[in-house]
Amino acid sequence: MGNAGLGKNSHELAKGHYGMDEQRLFEVLDRIASALECMAGRPQSPASSNDLDDPSSDDVQIQQTNTEKSIDLHSFLTGRGIRILRNNSQNDEDGELDKIATFIGDRYGIVCPFLTKLKQNVSSGAPFQMSLAQRGPAAISDICQLARSLHDIAYVNQFRYLNAPRCVLYATPSRLPDAINFLNGGWLERYVRSVFVKSARALRPDAPIRVMSGPVIEFPPNDQVGELDILIGVGAEDVYWFECKTGDYQEYVKKYVNLMGLMRMEPARSALVLTDLSEAAGTVIARTGLTVTSVAQLESTIRDMLVGCTPVLGS
Questions:
Q1: In a shared domain, residues 168 and 234
Q2: Buried b (16+ CB within 10 A) or exposed e, 211-247
Q3: What is the pLDDT of residues 131-152, one digit of tens each?
Q4: What is this structure's pTM?
Q5: Domain range holding 231?
């Protein structure tokens, strides 16, 4: 008998001839029938790309397709003499943190002063206050919403805002390791990943997307150890690399240039993302060839990368 044979009408007619226990049984059968009908024709979910026993699954697959193969980021790195010592991608998915990171990135110019205060005090967990008297109602609302969201996930221990005429915000950052990591720059990595995936889905809807976040790597020369912020594969052969900095970046530039050459990445497929783009960053571009962009310019930079760049050298 097919799934339709468990339809509700026959059960409703039969219920009147049985006791309470039999009626409960029919109710259970009704629910099972509904579930089977919903599942009918639905393709079986593929195996998870987070299988820890599979060394080629060190990345998280965001978007799947039946029309285009997915690049193996693990093989991409090992083929360039880079060994993955530890990968964090499997534990990096958190919808609430992604929402907060997107809120920060989209309103960075507004919430930056509050975020800076948090970052300055997160290591010590010291309470602080800041005046919002010179801010408009919309800006005050955004800052308080961010504080409340961080308080909800225990990244801010205490939060209080005194309305006009005082307009003062009081907050105490958490010293939880995850909170420290997020406030010190983890939010920016999540924001970059979110913007890229959104843009790639719009511009290349049929291409699978794979993301590797924060892998600890060993690379030549001399078996140096470091960490990549974000490596993203789109389709069968396109790879993009992002490094994110919310503070000083100058001491890392040489390493980024070396890694760009080692991975055979063109500047059009890799970028250093800064919270603010200063004139000094322009000098970096001219001197090293690194693509440097700011939070404000991130979306347009990623769009240009997806639309106009050439294939990865040596892929």
A1: no
A2: bbbbbebebeeeeeebebbbbbbbbeebbbbbbbbbe
A3: 999 999 999 999 999 999 999 9
A4: 0.77
A5: 60-91+189-308
